[in-house]
Amino acid sequence: MAPEMDQFYRSTMAIYKSIMEQFNPALENLVYLGNNYLRAFHALSEAAEVYFSAIQKIGEQALQSSTSQILGEILVQMSDTQRHLNSDLEVVVQTFHGDLLQHMEKNTKLDMQFIKDSCQHYEIEYRHRAANLEKCMSELWRMERKRDKNAREMKESVNRLHAQMQAFVSESKRAAELEEKRRYRFLAEKHLLLSNTFLQFLGRVSGAGESKPRPPESVVRRKGCSFLPLCFLYG
Amino acid sequence: MAPEMDQFYRSTMAIYKSIMEQFNPALENLVYLGNNYLRAFHALSEAAEVYFSAIQKIGEQALQSSTSQILGEILVQMSDTQRHLNSDLEVVVQTFHGDLLQHMEKNTKLDMQFIKDSCQHYEIEYRHRAANLEKCMSELWRMERKRDKNAREMKESVNRLHAQMQAFVSESKRAAELEEKRRYRFLAEKHLLLSNTFLQFLGRVSGAGESKPRPPESVVRRKGCSFLPLCFLYG
Question: Where does the chain cross the membrane (chains A, B) (predicted)?
Answer without folding.
Answer: none
